[in-house]
Amino acid sequence: MPKVSIIIPCYNEQATIRLLLEALREQTFPRADMEVIISDGFSTDGTRDAIAAFQKDFPDLAVRVVDNTNRSIPSAVNRAIESARGDIFIRLDAHSKPYPDYVANCIKAHAEKRGDNVGGVWEIHPGADTWIAKSIAVAAAHPLGVGDALYRHAKHAAEVDTVPFGSFKRELIERVGNFDESLLTNEDYEFNARVRKAGGRIWLDPSIRSIYFARPTLLELARQYWRYGFWKWRMLNRYPATLRWRQALPPLFVLSLIGLSLFSLFVPVARFALLGELALYFFIMILAGLSAAYYQKKAYLLFGLPLTIPVMHITWGGGFLWSILVLSKQKHG
After folding, report:
1. What predicted TM-score, i.e. pTM, was given to this entire model?
2. What is the DSSP string of 124-184?
3. Which of the listed residues 83, 180, 196, 300 has the most CB atoms within 10 Å of its CB?
4. What is the pLDDT of residue 297?
């Protein structure tokens, strides 16, 4: 039986950290062969107290906290790996909740040599009991929001470009190196790009399932997707061949809005083009909201999706374009 280290980057996750730890204690994989390492960036909201309370209540699950002094996700992963004793690392998120067979199914896929980095499917749940939080959760799993990202909706196992979190053997880190701490986001995609470049396989198995709690407010969603877009360009600048169509559309959309807005100041026909583009875009958003509200029997989605999906598109695209400008200025400054 392999020894497993669960790696958890964490910062201010008091609301969900206990849910995660309880889900790990309920795993079908033997607790004696599993350790949990929480790499915490000095949380200020009571996260560490919640962890300590769990350790006191359930000492049969080995849980350790290590300090993440750089307070970034990739540095958190690396500090946890440095402290880990396991043969296989399974990375999870502090606002996720794995199914009871999550660890066992990861180990099974490795035993069958399915891939070098193995992951599964997210089930997106709302981060709060509000209509906008519920709308964000639906948008985060909607094809208009995530395109062809298989880890949001895959039904069949397949080789893919990337997986959320992922599980991998210690020897993979020794072969391709640690997570890149210069990328504050998209570090998992960049890691998987190195794995594939080294001849490794990224394997997605839908039997490996976890619940992911989405951001609860539009402001938090906007910050998240701006960050995603900003650091995606930094990653693509190193691996341009990894660009996918779904990643190119948001910055092109934002760029067209900016361009048409500027041209409309001088060229009257540009105003009609801008209005036409916006009318078509929001017509599609309203249709998406209407369809989701009808099939899911949730009236708030009629308004919720036309609000949340544009926030995702515009902030992701805006962050991407801003990153291009910043990096270009740094190179030529």
Report:
1. 0.88
2. EE-SSSSHHHHHHHHHTTSHHHHTT-GGGT--S-EE-S--SS-EEEHHHHHHH-S--TT-S
3. 196
4. 94
